Amino acid sequence: MATEAPELTVNVEKPGAWARRLTITVPADRIAREKKDAVQRLSKRVKLPGFRQGHVPSAVMERKFGPAIEQEAVEKVINDAYREALESEGLQPISQASVENVNYEPGSDLKFDVELEVRPEIELERIGGFTVLREQSPVADQQVDEVLQRLRDENAAWRTKEDSTPVAGDMATVEITPLDDATEAEPSKPRRYEIVIGEGQALQAVEDAIITLKMGESAEFEVDLPENPEEPAGPTKPHRMHINVVELKTPEYAPLDDEFAKSLGDFDSLAVLRERIAEDLGRETEKEAERGVRMQIVQQIIDANPFEVPQSMVRGYLDQMMPTREGADPAKLEELRMQMWPMAETALKRSMVVDRIAEMEALRPTAAEMDARIDDMAERMGRPRGEVIAQLRKAGRLVELEQEITEEKVFDYLKSLSDIQ
User: Fold this and answer.
1) pTM of the model as a whole
2) Residues 391, 386: Cα–Cα separation, whole Å
3) Tens place of pLDDT per residue across the chain (421 aa)
4) Which one of 32, 314, 322, 325 has the largest count of C-beta atoms within 10 Å of its C-beta?
5) Domains along the chain?
């Protein structure tokens, strides 16, 4: 299929489901104009004997720099023509394009091919008529008790413990000196750590050594540690180390009463605090139940309308989620990416379904809906609307907010088409 973009002829072929081959022809007069512009750009940068900078005649420039000018003009025309072709054809590339078969002779048209993959256009024939179960359990007293205990832990006062060895929940400040490679000429330097006993903050073998010491005591130990720190359950080998308990503290918890509740904020009593915690937990269970409903709906739509996701799209998603970091083992990173492949594929399918339905049913948020959401945010935050917009724009969250509203509208629509039990 050939189409006419301004000054371009674009022919599109579909050699595969997501593959596209563009054959783009650019008329000779456009290249001539670009060569003229390239001459002017270059003349401002070069100095030639007998000419003021920026005033070298075009004919002289072309005699001296003809091939370089030609190459610069052709490269710019190819880049510009490719972008214009994408726009005129409404294509969204998901892979790096490959420019091939560049055919050009001075004074003639320029013709070249571009190979790329595009975002799939999925067809959704069935998006409703499903049965979906909303799973939501009432908030139990035990859940409220667990939150209260966590609040007590976070607000505990720490008392120095001098007369006994540490137990679970105590905080030990220790200095650990490895001795395996230490020499008299080059002694090892101690490293200081703060460890809460029983919370898995140190390897069990090291923690077992620490709990034999009181505050101010030190000793040498031989402990079995994993040969590979990334595989704690793997083979071990013995290491010698010196451990010094610098400080030892034990937590003191406030009584779980009205005074404790008042110390946490605007709560008149422990009963009011428990009620607020239950309300917060209730909202979380509602959100979790809603997430479950949405996941079920999307999965049933995918099952009813099977489609594949291009591998390059999944690869790009994983590369973005798990970028290569300096010093990382490439083989292990690739292994982890392969383990995450099914999750990435599912996430992309979900996103594509939501986007497609938003397009099919015109469910993108209007300007008025965006304004209303921002006004609501400003009111809740107690800040001027303009300040909230500036913050959203600076953090790049306006697009995220638009997507959030889109998803709400899409799922409200989809729920109206199915039976939510």
Assistant:
1) 0.66
2) 9
3) 555 445 788 888 888 778 888 899 989 888 888 877 776 666 666 555 555 555 555 565 555 566 777 778 888 888 888 888 888 888 888 878 888 888 888 888 889 999 888 888 888 999 999 999 998 889 999 999 999 999 998 898 999 998 899 999 999 999 999 888 877 777 888 999 999 999 988 888 999 999 999 999 999 999 888 877 777 777 888 989 999 999 999 999 889 999 999 999 889 999 999 999 999 999 999 999 999 999 999 999 999 999 888 888 888 888 888 887 877 778 888 888 889 999 999 999 999 999 999 999 999 999 999 889 988 888 888 888 888 888 888 888 888 889 999 999 999 999 999 999 8
4) 314
5) 2-117 (3.30.70.1050), 124-155+273-307 (no CATH), 157-252 (3.10.50.30)
Q: Which helix (H) or strand (E) holds 400?
A: helix 398-416
- Phi/psi of residue 254, nearest 5 degrees: -70, 150
Residues, the chain: 421
**Triad 47, 52, 55: Cα angle to 5°:** 95
